[in-house]
Design brief:
By secondary structure, the protein is an alpha+beta fold. The chain is built from 3 helices and 3 strands. The chain has helices at 36-49, 73-97, 101-104; strands at residues 11-16, 25-31, 53-59.
């Protein structure tokens, strides 16, 4: 990834593994630049496994500097949990979009 070009709110999607196959799994991440190397490593591991996967990454600002002590609960904890909820909601909507038509029929 090019973390130097990323900003909070940016979105990236990667198809890894067998490019011609339907993805067997969709992975959804909320990450910050600090975790960029971990994201790179995960993408490399998934690609090496060879199975088709689709990785959706939503980039956010770092929530806090872990060396600085406690969270600012009024601001950062609420914001972090809201971001997690939005990524979860997006993943759920995307999964509904890919259901077979018989599964979505009343």
């Amino acid at each position: 990834t090019s973390r130097s070009l990323l900003c909070a709110g940016c979105q990236q999607s990667y198809a890894v593994g067998d490019a011609g196959a339907q993805p067997i799994v969709h992975v959804w991440l909320l990450a910050s630049k600090t975790y960029g190397h971990l994201v790179d490593r995960m993408l490399e591991t998934l690609a090496a496994a060879g199975d088709a996967a689709h990785v959706h990454i939503r980039w956010a600002d770092d929530m806090r500097d872990a060396s600085q002590g406690e969270w600012d609960f009024a601001r950062t904890v609420f914001g972090f949990n809201l971001r997690k909820l939005l990524v979860l909601h997006e993943a759920h909507l995307e999964s509904l979009r890919h259901l077979p038509s018989s599964a979505t029929a009343p």
